[in-house]
Amino acid sequence: MSDASWSDRLLGGFKQTSDRLTSNLGGLVGKTKLDAGTLDEIEDALIASDLGPRAAARIRARLEEGRYDAGLTDEGLREIVAEEIAVILRKVAKPLDITAFPRPQVILVIGVNGSGKTTTIAKLAHVFQEQDYGVMLAAGDTFRAAAIGQLRVWADRLGVPIVAGAEGGDPASVVFDALKSATETGIDTLIVDTAGRLQNKRELMDELAKVRRVLGRMNPEAPHDVVLVLDATNGQNALQQIETFREVAGVTGLIMTKLDGTARGGVLVAAAEQYGLPIHAIGVGETIDDLRAFDPDLLARVIAGVFR
Questions:
Q1: Tens digit of pLDDT per residue, the chain (308 long)?
Q2: What's the angle, vertex CA 142, arms to CA 137 and CA 145, rounded to 5?
Q3: Which is nearest to 114 in space by CA: 139, 144, 142, 84?
Q4: How far is CA 143 from CA 25, 34, 122, 151, 229, in A?
Q5: What is this structure's pTM?
Q6: What is the C-alpha to C-alpha distance for residues 282 and 266, in angstroms, rounded to an integer?
């Protein structure tokens, strides 16, 4: 995908987010000096746009430092918002690179059912294929036949090997077989799907701990990455998922999906500011090539509605 088409996709995907932010901030400046009351309104508007209290407080502090008089326009305010969002996103915009030696690099992908996890695995595999890496998939979510079937379909479409077991089987056994096969065949990266049940956190924790133990016995460095897939349409609930999965699974990075057609894209900024975890990629569409690492400065301007 060209840079131009990706920029267009970002603009389209984040339109509701930027429209919401622009609407919430509209008319708050320009008439009077930025007094405490106006700053409170701006801070509330930023929180209402899903940027989160920490990012909102950061932007408010920047405005207080600026000693802006009545001359600050709506667009000038959004420029400042864009600059502060960029500062936040620069710290976390980190593509997922294949660096493990010996191979393979093992990537555990976790997330609640319905987050787009299985589809994201396929898109991630496609990204690595474009970089000429060999990819293998492991169907570690053995509790849902649909998850196993869906991953098989994607593996066939992409032309990558997959290791899967029976529905209701032991996920650790599937992962053991997959890592053994990937190691023997010299695959660059093994991407492992996992169960997305949160109803019983203890059960999920025990299951992931067992998978980790099996991987660790075969390769002390594995898993190299534990990537949490988040559905942006969940807004603030996505932040609660980070909290839960960080505790349960030791999350090392995030991928945020379904940013197209939602007004909740500001949660990306809230997640970055609150947790500081690497955000490896974002998804702004339903096609196989819609998952990409992002330019934090470009994305900040798109979110703030000042992209030209």
A1: 566 687 888 888 888 889 999 999 988 887 667 788 889 999 999 999 999 999 999 999 998 887 666 568 889 899 999 999 999 999 999 999 999 999 999 999 999 888 889 999 999 999 999 999 999 999 999 888 888 999 999 999 999 999 998 888 899 999 999 999 999 999 999 999 998 776 667 788 888 889 999 999 999 999 999 999 999 888 888 899 999 888 888 899 999 998 887 778 899 999 999 999 999 999 988 889 889 999 999 999 999 999 75
A2: 95
A3: 144
A4: 46, 55, 19, 13, 18
A5: 0.93
A6: 13
Cα–Cα distance, 232 to 195 (Å, whole number)? 20
Contact 277, 225 (CB under 8 A): no
Distance in angstroms (rounded) separating the CA atoms of residues 71 and 80: 14
Backbone angles phi, psi at 68, to 5 degrees: -75, 135
- With residue 78 as reference, give the H or E element that holds it: helix 74-90
3 state DSSP class of 112: coil
Query: Which of 21, 22, 27, 23 lies closest to 73, judged by CA?
Result: 27
Q: Read off the amino acid at residue 137.
A: L
Residue 116's CB is within 10 A of a number of other CB atoms, namely 21
